[in-house]
Amino acid sequence: MIASFKPRARTLMGPGPSDVNPRILEALGRTTIGHLDPQFIEMMDQIKQLLQYAFQTKNELTLPVSAPGSAGMEACFVNLLEPGDKAIVCINGVFGNRMVENVKRCGATAVTVEDDWGKPVDPNKVEAALQANPDAKVLCFVHAETSTGARSDAKTLAGLAQQHDCLTIVDTVTSLGGVELKVDEWGLDAVYSGTQKCLSCTPGLSPVTFSEKAAEVIRNRKAPVQSWFLDMNLVMGYWGGGAKRAYHHTAPINALYGLHESLVILQEEGLENAWARHAKMHASLAAGLDALGIGFVVKSDYRLPQLNAVTIPEGIDDAAVRGKLLQDYDLEIGAGLGALAGKVWRIGLMGHSANAENVALCLNALETVLIEMGQNIEKGAASKAVAAAVLS
């Protein structure tokens, strides 16, 4: 007979999910109520307000899609694009390529702007593409590329789109709650994220927000949205304001309890404080990694503090190190994706995982494993470097 599943506790320092705050785990276990219960509807309104704070927006069309971040991505594309439309898509890692796939499946044409993996999107290339394609409907880019740890200048890119009367679709899956993100001030139109990164909630929900300009495009489509489930015209009948809601789907009630709690925690800390904490923990990690002879893929000017793509030392087996960390230290770090597979590790410092204890665990465990594998490293070098960095 199969027994109840009880996993060993892990410290999650990969590209996501991140460690889940115990307060969120407690919230997930609260009593289940109906998805049209007045109490639940009250909580829905609070989630909307809290997401507006996290995104720094007043957009009415702000809600969590009842599915992972990939569904939030698809929601943005299927609602804004129709067959025959043209989209300019920026590719500087894995997730730009996923945007291209979404454009194609909407029956639209993708014009790609490509940059090397590990570099941000080049605004000059984007401006040239916008000038060459005056009929483009949307500009699509990843704010925080999870496959490389590179941050692009969302404010500048959105400004270029506005100059060319073009909407923006922006991936903020790894940036929301971890680095500066100001949807209204920067003029972003369709923005999607995930709950399992810097919000430190469980996977399975995708916060999205649409500007009024984007919402107007959705309301005036020529053809119905190809996805019934992700059609914002229908979803807003359930997530719209007021006590009266039109049934659309049975919401993941307990998962939304968890999201509510994670957003309350973010509000308590304050957005600016959360951004500063991620930056501080990154600085400690970077000092320790430098002492171990490990460098970064991305230059410091546009490096994500919460997603650290670092080069694997020559002669070291990628999978063997990650396996050793998991087996001996219950510590998870991530492998490289696509062109960076086998060449980099991705070390996450996201949300509840971004703390001094996790930084120390990661550096000390990695140092020990690398010494065991023959690397010429002084024992305790990482800790000394972190201490020196903190005092400086």
Question: In words, what does this structure look like?
Answer:
There is one protein chain. The protein is globular. The protein folds into two domains: 22-268, Type I PLP-dependent aspartate aminotransferase-like (Major domain) (Aspartate Aminotransferase, domain 2, 3-Layer(aba) Sandwich), CATH 3.40.640.10; 271-391, Aspartate Aminotransferase, domain 1 (Alpha-Beta Complex). The model has no long low-confidence stretch (mean pLDDT 96). The protein has helices at residues 22-28, 38-55, 69-80, 94-105, 123-132, 154-163, 183-186, 212-219, 232-239, 253-269, 271-291, 318-329, 356-372, 381-391, and strands at residues 11-12, 61-65, 86-91, 109-114, 138-142, 144-145, 150-151, 167-171, 190-192, 206-210, 307-311, 331-332, 334-335, 344-348. The longest helix is centred in the C-terminal third of the chain and has 21 residues, at 271-291. Helices cover 43% and strands 14% of the residues. The strands form four sheets. Strands 2-10-9-8-5-3-4 form a seven-stranded mixed β-sheet, with helices on both faces. The protein is an alpha/beta fold. The chain is built from 14 helices and 14 strands. Residues 32-336 form the Aminotransferase class V domain. Belongs to the class-V pyridoxal-phosphate-dependent aminotransferase family.
Instruction: Just name the CATH architecture of the largest domain.
Output: 3-Layer(aba) Sandwich
Give helix % range: 40-55%
> At the third CATH level, what is the topology name of the largest domain?
Aspartate Aminotransferase, domain 2
Biggest sheet strand line-up: 2-10-9-8-5-3-4
Structural class: alpha/beta
Shape: globular
Oligomer status: single chain
Weakly predicted, low-confidence segments:
none
Radius of gyration: 21 Å
Total beta strands: 14
Count of individual helical segments: 14
Q: Report the top-level CATH class of the largest domain.
A: Alpha Beta
User: Could you give the distance between the termini?
Assistant: 58 Å
Average pLDDT: 96
Order of helices and strands: EHHEHEHEHEEEHEHEEHHHHEHEEEHH
CATH homolog superfamily of the largest domain: Type I PLP-dependent aspartate aminotransferase-like (Major domain)
Main beta sheet strand tally, sense and closure: 7 strands, mixed
**Range of strand content:** 5-15%
Number of domains: 2
Organism: Litorivivens lipolytica
GO biological process, one term: glycine biosynthetic process, by transamination of glyoxylate
Pfam family, one: Aminotran_5
Enzyme class: transferase
